[in-house]
Amino acid sequence: MTGVQQIEVADADSDIRLDRWFQRHFPGVSHGRLQKLLRKGQVRVDGSRAKASDRVAVGQIIRVPPLTEKDTESRPKPSIRKLSDDDKKFIQSIVLFKNSYVVAINKPAGLAVQGGSKTHRHIDGMLDGLRFGAKERPKLVHRLDRDTSGVLLLARSAKVAAKLSAAFRTRRVRKTYWALAKGVPPIREGIIDVPLVKTVSAAQQGREMVMPDLDDQSGARRAKTAYEVVASAGGELTWLALQPVTGRTHQLRAHCAAIGNPIIGDHKYGERQDLNPDLADQLHLHARQLDITDNELGRLSIVAPLPPHMKKSWAFLGLDEREGYTIKLLDEESLLGE
After folding, report:
1. Which residues are designated catalytic?
2. Are 144 and 150 in contact (CB under 8 A)?
């Protein structure tokens, strides 16, 4: 049994969640065990009670209570599949931009960002292929759904990851998505301000979804999306530019469905429909552009070309990609003011 420890947060751990800090320094402490210690007030940050989701800052003092031998044992690391030459070649082939701070890739549709019980090939498992001589492997700072393609930004160090996480959290990052949706919104541009709540859908075989909060449920979270109609095709389909102001799970998909314009190929939030064979039965949602302004990292504007299935749809519908280049939606001041 160890005694009480008072540990100062180091620079490399700045701005990470408290539970993540414990994973790094005390991997033997399970999530359940940590939650119990937090509930009892035995883990404290600068003398105050804390939550697992709280973010720590450099110089803060974390009180770690006496731990058992089991707590301090290192849990066996999961077996890591050795990165094959093919996977290394693949992950490097989708790099859009890199400098000494970040690497940006164009994530393909259908490839998960992280693994799961039935997911063995994913972006996280290939990050060693993006070291490019650096000591640290790149770190994920945001996510995209498995079926969403487009710009995925990676930090090349823990310090940069903390800065980027703060930039995403304080909305100093502007993300613009392109989508092909069913129908045409009656208003060509605006803000979708619809709270979303997590629920379990019987229609989706018990899978978790987010739905519009129609009953003022306590678990609902405010969600806002700016949108603009770029072009329409025969009054039946619409090319939308979307910009999330908040970052809720499945926000864009749920919001498009909420206004009556579900995204084509979205079987979870839109009804299955008979599509023209020239339109792929895949999710037509693409993280087109990411803009960031940071005093240390500078200004970045990264654009990802459309994935093959959306490029084919654009060509079939006669949509000109150049029409989307002038879309700005919300400016930085508007985002920061929300």
Report:
1. 145
2. yes
| Pure H helices in the chain | 18-25, 31-39, 69-72, 85-93, 158-169, 251-258, 308-317, 332-337
Sheet holding 48-49, edge to edge: 5-8, 61-64, 44-45, 48-49
Q: What is the DSSP letter of 7?
A: E
Question: The tokens of 268 are what?
Answer: 């979870």
Closest CA to 22 of 46, 49, 69, 54: 54
- Decide whether 85-169 matches 173-337 in CATH topology: yes
**Top-tier CATH class for 5-72:** alpha beta
The predicted-structure confidence for 13-40, as pLDDT tens digits, reads as follows 777 789 888 888 888 888 889 999 999 9
Sorted by where each begins, the domain ranges of the chain are 5-72, 85-169, 173-337
What is the architecture of the domain spanning 173-337? 2-Layer Sandwich (3.30)
Residue 93: burial class (beta carbons within 10 Å; 0-12, 13-18, 19+): exposed
- CA 230 to CA 327: how far, in whole Å? 8
- For residue 120 the two structure tokens come to 């063995």
What residues are paired with 287 via a beta bridge? Answer: 150, 177
**What tens digit of pLDDT does each residue of 94-118 get?**
999 999 999 999 999 999 998 766 7
Q: What's the length of the chain? A: 338
Residue type, 52: A
Domain range 85-169, its CATH number among 3.30.2350.10, 3.30.200.20, 3.30.1130.10, 3.90.1150.10: 3.30.2350.10
pTM of the shown model: 0.77
**CA dist list (Å): 114 to 117, 121, 122, 147, 246:** 11, 8, 5, 13, 22
